[in-house]
């Protein structure tokens, strides 16, 4: 005969014991203090295990007639940031967002950030249109210097800016010179760190143009370091990426680095001459 698992329903049976002890009832032994069940009652009160609890927490996203609910759980907040949020930021900073000078600031800032992050919508592969005509006999370095860099640090959203130098040795294909500037702009108009920006430009040029070598040097000043934190104005961060033959060919690497520095040397010489300083 099945056992009675009283321990599993202790609270319920204790309450039942209290009620039933007050009334004589067939099947209960009142001779003893305490509560016991006759075999007949034991059969009637056999404990049954409940159905296992299901951990399935799937949320029904349809109405009763099968039509989908309108956005039951909204996880896409990318398009929800509005000019009202910029107004809240101004208020959070302690400003009066309703004063005349700030009335149109939220709209201006929203437009500015769309421009500053427009690189996310650009495809580098579409930028780097290559030409074979004119590249058949040319296998020397092509270097473009002084490419402007304007970006924002992903750590503080503070701007950093400077110049980039890009060089490559063609392998039967060349790219329009303006495309190198557009390539820099594509990756700079994203939240960045300078190290990643440098290698992204070099890797993309190597992948889509397939030259024999690629070199990229970027020099930038970072406002997250100059205007806050250590606050050291005028410091310049220099990063470089060398791919292909530029890694193994010492002469080619030195030529590229010399060409990348030559403009800086010329500018220094000119400034020194203007100040009447001697240059060794």
Could you estimate the helical fraction of the residues in percent?
Answer: 25-40%
Poorly predicted runs = 1-8, 25-47, 53-65, 67-75, 266-270
Q: What overall form do the CA principal axes indicate?
A: elongated
Mean pLDDT: 78
SSE succession: HHHHHEEEEHEHEHEHH
Say how many strands there are: 7
Radius of gyration: 38 Å
Give me the number of helical elements.
10
Major beta-sheet overview: 5 strands, mixed
Output the structural class. Answer: alpha+beta
Q: Output the strand order for the largest sheet.
A: 5-2-3-6-7
Cα(first) to Cα(last) distance is: 109 Å
Beta-strand percentage? 15-25%
Descriptive notes:
The protein is α+β, with helices and mostly antiparallel strands. The chain contains 10 helices and 7 strands. Strand 2 (142-153) and strand 3 (159-169) form a beta hairpin. The radius of gyration is 38 Å and the shape is elongated. It starts with 9 loop residues before the first helix and ends in a 6-residue tail after the last helix. Residues 1-8, 25-47, 53-65, 67-75 and 266-270 have low confidence and may be disordered.
Topology:
Blueprint: H1 10-21, H2 39-44, H3 83-92, H4 105-116, H5 124-127, E1 130-131, E2 142-153, E3 159-169, E4 174-175, H6 177-188, E5 191-192, H7 194-209, E6 213-222, H8 223-226, E7 237-244, H9 245-248, H10 250-274
Helix pairs in contact: 3-4
């Amino acid at each position: 005969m099945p056992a009675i698992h009283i321990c599993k329903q202790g609270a319920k049976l204790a309450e039942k014991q209290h009620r039933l002890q007050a009334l004589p009832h067939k099947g209960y032994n009142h001779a003893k203090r305490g509560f016991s069940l006759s075999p007949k009652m034991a059969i009637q009160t056999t404990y049954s295990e409940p159905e296992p609890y299901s951990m399935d927490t799937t949320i029904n996203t349809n109405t009763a007639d099968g039509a989908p609910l309108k956005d039951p759980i909204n996880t896409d907040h990318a398009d929800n940031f509005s000019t009202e949020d910029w107004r809240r930021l101004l208020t959070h900073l302690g400003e009066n967002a309703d004063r005349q000078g700030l009335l149109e600031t939220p709209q201006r800032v929203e437009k500015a950030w769309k421009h500053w992050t427009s690189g996310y919508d650009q495809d580098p592969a579409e930028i780097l249109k290559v030409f074979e005509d004119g590249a058949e006999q040319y296998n020397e370095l092509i270097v473009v210097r002084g490419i402007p860099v304007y970006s924002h640090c992903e750590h503080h959203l503070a701007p950093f800016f400077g110049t980039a130098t890009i060089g490559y040795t063609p392998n039967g294909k060349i790219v329009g010179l303006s495309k190198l500037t557009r390539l820099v702009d594509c990756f700079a108009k994203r939240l960045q760190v300078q190290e990643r920006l440098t290698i992204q430009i070099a890797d993309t040029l190597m992948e889509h143009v397939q030259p024999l070598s690629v070199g990229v040097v970027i020099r930038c000043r970072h406002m997250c370091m100059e205007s806050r934190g250590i606050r050291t104005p005028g410091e310049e961060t220099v990063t470089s990426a060398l791919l292909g033959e530029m890694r193994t060919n010492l002469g080619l690497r030195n030529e590229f680095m010399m060409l990348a520095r030559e403009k800086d040397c010329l500018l220094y010489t000119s400034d020194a001459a203007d100040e009447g300083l001697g240059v060794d």
